[in-house]
Write a structure and sequence with these properties.
Length: 537
Amino acid sequence: MVFMKIEFLGADREVTGSCHYVAFGETHFLVDCGMEQGADLYVNQEIPVNPATIDYVFVTHAHIDHSGLLPLLYNHGFRGKIFATTATCELCNIMLKDSAHIQEFEAEWKNRKARRAGRPEVTPMYNMEDAQGVLEHFVPCTYHETVQICEGLTIRFVDAGHLLGSSSIEIWVTEDGETRKLVFSGDIGNYNRPLIRDPEYLEEADYVIMESTYGNRNHNTPPDYAAELAKVMNSTFTKGGNLVIPAFSVGRTQEMLYYMRRIKTEGLLPEYPGFEVYIDSPLAVEATNIFHKSVEECFDEEARQLVQSGINPIQFPGLKVAVSSEESKMINFNQKSKVIISASGMCEAGRIRHHLKHNLWRTDSTILFVGYQVPGTLGYSLLNGVKKVKLFGEEIEVRASIVNLPGISGHADRDHLTAWIANFKKPPKKVFIVHGEETTAVEFAEHVRNDVGFDALAPYSGDAYDLLTGEQIAQGSRQLVEKKTQGVYRAKSGAFDRLMIAGERLIAVIKKCQGMANKDLGKFADQINSLCDKWDR
């Protein structure tokens, strides 16, 4: 009997935590394995099989909401291969280790408080060992390269224009002579952005799994971002304050540097020609180095021409970096007005929270948001007028100017999303709309049905479909989360937990041995029995 199905696990009627599970025959794979960021709306279905039985993971791009649970997958027994573009592999190498550091740091901070209060200690979601372990399983690929993963499974990455190395993934699944083509859009990029290329269009698929972050609205007519930034900087510096920009270390930080270089070279801020810009993020510094290495593979024509003419598009006089904690702290002792670019972009973690603590209460400073803010994050609260926030146990009054620079988005808007899906030459059997707030995903699915003419719907986590017939074969939970709980998935860090994971992995390996030569099977059985004899007490 031919078996082929897809099950939706994460970022379904929500914006973050992308994860999709596909099974055919005896093969199991995931597309993305992301961490939820911000508020949870629905209870997410866990991976329906033992992680040790997952053969492959295909990663659309390095953002943590698409890759951030890979170390946890490893912690739970996964030892398969992870395929991604070369730039995505390099970015994940720094981002997953950075994420593990944050997990460990925050757990230790909470545990110091817990020990003083006599409360139980917490376990980090995963640790550096898990991150280092899973990184050894990455396999780099190039754009447009057709890769046969195993019998019945072929993939190809194309440029999604969202982030350095970001991709849409074409996947051909064949079982017993039946082939279905799936296209996972990943996050589709905005158009005419600096440094990286525009998204590529695709033309055919049986099923499309498509993001919808901005599926119910269009970006404003793009301003001259460098000129708009110069206005905000002039206003802030005139008051004697700092311009603080929460920005993701990968992508948005490098775009900000591109615009700052333009402000310098084009004389757009003549009142303050020697202004200083601080990048306060070790991750951003490492990511910027990866940008420098990816010119030919990922940069657009304009950026490549700058490099070929000897101009570094993200380097300029007055640019300073803070790598160590001491260097970071010294930024706030410098009384001179300056630009501080720091992560995270939604103000949920990282050094940006220290800079907010030092600047939110100042009437002369400005906090400038240049990217999407997920509901439930501190960034979203600040943009929506919150008057007081709590940082490091201290209540801070919000007196700084809170500014949003619209249009600087890494995501395509409604019109560009529509153009992307409408480029398919014949209607896919189904278009699954994911990675959007619930109202946005539902509205965009309706738009695709009514205006593009394709069968589209917004699945819930746990919904599953037969890829041969297109019929729904399982219904996920519609249960709402009562309150946000960080780290629903937890690391199994105890010795007995690790032993249980090893046992589950052994069972998974044994099942894969069916059909091997009797001689090899007997040898394997003898080894297992010998091990059991040693430890059976």
